Amino acid sequence: MSEIQSTDGSRTYTLAQLAIYVGGQLRGPGDAVVRGIAAPALARPDQVCFIADKRHVAALEITEAAAAIVDEQLAAKTDRSVLICASPYLAYARASQLFDRTPVASGIHPTAVVHPEARIAEGVSLGANSVIEKDAVLGAGVAVGAGTVVGQRSRVGENSRLYANVTLYHDVTIGADCTIHSGAVLGADGFGFAPDQGRWERIAQNGGVVLGDAVSVGANTTIDRGAIGDTVIEDGVIIDNLCQIAHNVRIGRHSALAGTCGIAGSAIIGAHCTLAGGAGMVGHIELADGCHIGARTVVTKSISKKGSWSAGTPMMPSREWRRAAVRFTQLDSLAQRIAELEKKLGK
Amino acid sequence: MSEIQSTDGSRTYTLAQLAIYVGGQLRGPGDAVVRGIAAPALARPDQVCFIADKRHVAALEITEAAAAIVDEQLAAKTDRSVLICASPYLAYARASQLFDRTPVASGIHPTAVVHPEARIAEGVSLGANSVIEKDAVLGAGVAVGAGTVVGQRSRVGENSRLYANVTLYHDVTIGADCTIHSGAVLGADGFGFAPDQGRWERIAQNGGVVLGDAVSVGANTTIDRGAIGDTVIEDGVIIDNLCQIAHNVRIGRHSALAGTCGIAGSAIIGAHCTLAGGAGMVGHIELADGCHIGARTVVTKSISKKGSWSAGTPMMPSREWRRAAVRFTQLDSLAQRIAELEKKLGK
Amino acid sequence: MSEIQSTDGSRTYTLAQLAIYVGGQLRGPGDAVVRGIAAPALARPDQVCFIADKRHVAALEITEAAAAIVDEQLAAKTDRSVLICASPYLAYARASQLFDRTPVASGIHPTAVVHPEARIAEGVSLGANSVIEKDAVLGAGVAVGAGTVVGQRSRVGENSRLYANVTLYHDVTIGADCTIHSGAVLGADGFGFAPDQGRWERIAQNGGVVLGDAVSVGANTTIDRGAIGDTVIEDGVIIDNLCQIAHNVRIGRHSALAGTCGIAGSAIIGAHCTLAGGAGMVGHIELADGCHIGARTVVTKSISKKGSWSAGTPMMPSREWRRAAVRFTQLDSLAQRIAELEKKLGK
């Protein structure tokens, strides 16, 4: 796709190019040049905006954007320049990639440390001070950031990108087109210890970690290696920052975990599940495909069919909350007192 | 300030020097030498202590400290050597800095990797194996720890310190006098994906991260880059370890977030707020200036005026808790039964 | 112990060797060769399995394992080949170590950066780009992973292992036989600030971090240095990933913290405690020896004797949960209405 890249990494496209790329229908000047995407109220005449929510129809009239990405219904309500798409939000996602300023990695930095028995395919880029250990295998087009360590016998599939300061232990397998953000640690020991007369005897974690294709792992997230057998993250799973994925967990295709989730050992998450921020699961249970778990909710038993689950108490002014919290501790006796009253009243 | 530094990094001052530095009034021997600060009960005669809480008045008599940092009220209750300050706790903070043993960074280590197009001001120190990428800009007196990576076009203001193994992605801007602790990751992609027929289409995160002056970021904390526009942390904000700050969050001046807080995308925190450990916010809501959020409380809707908010249930012996937890699930029917009873009794 | 190590890092033993190593009694062919451990249903004839739970007796008959590690009771129920141990789970832990595929670290990589005034004992291994700062001391047999930084005056005891990309600040002391996983940060500043007219004045954190022997620290866990005096983790403590241990915390011998726990400043945890995933403690309180804290439970006051404590509400279908959550906010008035009813009924 022809484009102009400026010295600061920004790119420009015409509206016509944009329409082709996002798969939309342009109603407006195809030769108008756009340099980015902005919120409707802030967009300048060389930017586009998108409106995914019909309630925001008023924004159509105030925005100065070169074009607004909207669906047919919204397009019918205005005469302004629009880019009509079945899903404006998805079209925005595609358009955003055109303006991605993430530096393209290229070349092998002279300070990269590559073990002679590692295998590096063509087109691999290695950042400064990256370390590729013995028998590691990097597929074509893999990008490894500065300071990142790829442990022995670990494998990274084609076109996957590991940002700076990532750590892969030994025997970690990553598919193609994955993104691993900085500080993520894949393959550390699962938390397995057997009690031995008041002490803890370490259980060697002899499994690995296996990621499918197109998996995204957030910054400082940890995915432990399996004790027996592997920890498995299937194709298309997206995991946000600071999540803890314990040993032998399995996460099904295209599931999404928001920030600070914690999944205990051997838990299984089905496909197309979503876990909101700070959600968790206790170990050795299973979540069916298509489950949605609310923020900070801990899943404590297996769920066998899709649905939406929540836990917790709402925020309250602290003074009122203190009273409610005390009452919570009295709940069982309160319930018994209700039963007493019902008995007296001859229910 | 004249001082004597010993070989192990410790420093000594006279009580008179200390009084000037913390802005207090000394009642005691100005030439007494002190080598540090300790708790009242543990302080040796060459240390000072502080008593910020009037209830701890008894400690005044038992401590062997060279002087006790106290306010006027406490000073009036003793004949011992004291350093009288309006706020003993603040005076302790200042005094503590005199005894700081943090190694002073200096010089550019020969293994530091600096791109020829990076700009490094005078007095910058770069630790071993640090990496400064293309077009990065480091202001005068900036200290970069070992293994730390500063991404393309990122800028660090004067006298800011990045400890070891920090990662700044591209287009991250840090003000002057900031402190970024090890393992922190600034500028990783926000967690933005659009659903596309059961798959997730990545939304490029084209904004950056902007930190004001005198911001402190804890170890292994993550601050994501914005999707459109920047994630912004204003002057004087302090953030503890392992916090997750999502894309396009804005945190107002001098707010404080304790460890393991999680703030979802586009949430706005006002100035002078405090969030206790593990607190959180859902996305796209706003917290007014001066709000205080209790430990593990999730803010689920905007709060328009200052106040204190809490959530959660108190810890209980597990056996009792199990009963209360079951009753929680019955709360709605319990409430209905109360209404029934009231109706029967003709309320 | 004689063994055969194959080129991919796997090892083989005879059943007789295994029996001696785990301290069990073999009933079966001593010369059978085993190459690993697997779950009963998946074990091949060259693997062993273990059955720790008597309810899984049926697995004894279906497994193809060379031998099943069981206790006497289970052994009495089968004629198959078994390895009889007092604690099958502990025996499994020991056996697992025989098959550990973690690469053995050896040698000092030429890219390791060692300050001339650091002291490195015999048998120390240093990974690529590791950094050992001034006056650091590494005991015999210490293994330091790639990219790991050991700060000034920090000390690591014999045979301890720091994996890749660990950060130790200055004045951190680690005992013998410890394991520190990647991304862990020990010795960052505790979160100490004094309010000063709406700003935060930093309190220098002049203590250190002290770990006893045989301590295990999980990936991306943070343990802050003390403000005055040290943060102390006693012998045999095991800490999982992404835990936050604040300044001046003390954790007693052989206690265990599962993933994402958060312990606030100056909290004291006794010996032999267990904290489940995401548990926490507020600051300045104390947990007696032998306490067990449930998942996500925050300990809000001192506990003086051993016991089990929990908090939180159970997960519910979101629609039902919303009603219960609203009722929680009404709890105090519901309780008052019950009292009213009781009064009317002349209780």
Structure described in brief:
Chain A is 15% helix and 28% strand. Chain A is of the alpha/beta class and 347 residues long. In chain A, the strands form six sheets. A ten-stranded parallel beta sheet of chain A has the order 9-12-15-18-21-26-29-32-35-38, with no helix packed on it.
The radius of gyration of chain A is 26 Å
Any idea what the CATH superfamily of the largest domain in chain A is called?
Hexapeptide repeat proteins
What is the CATH third-level topology name of the largest domain in chain A?
A: UDP N-Acetylglucosamine Acyltransferase, domain 1
User: Shape of chain A, please?
Assistant: flat
- Please describe the biggest sheet of chain A, giving its number of strands, its sense, and whether it closes into a barrel: 10 strands, parallel
Can you tell me the CATH class of the largest domain in chain A?
Mainly Beta
**Straight-line N-to-C gap of chain A:** 76 Å
From the coordinates shown, what is the CATH architecture of the largest domain in chain A? 3 Solenoid
Q: Which structural class do the helices and strands of chain A define?
A: alpha/beta
Strand content of chain A: 25-35%
Q: Hey, which two chains have the biggest interface? A: A-C, 80 and 79 residues
Share of residues in helices of chain A: 10-25%
Main sheet strand line-up of chain A: 9-12-15-18-21-26-29-32-35-38
Low-confidence stretches of chain A: none
The oligomeric state is homotrimer
Question: How many structurally independent domains of chain A?
Answer: 3
Number of strands of chain A: 40
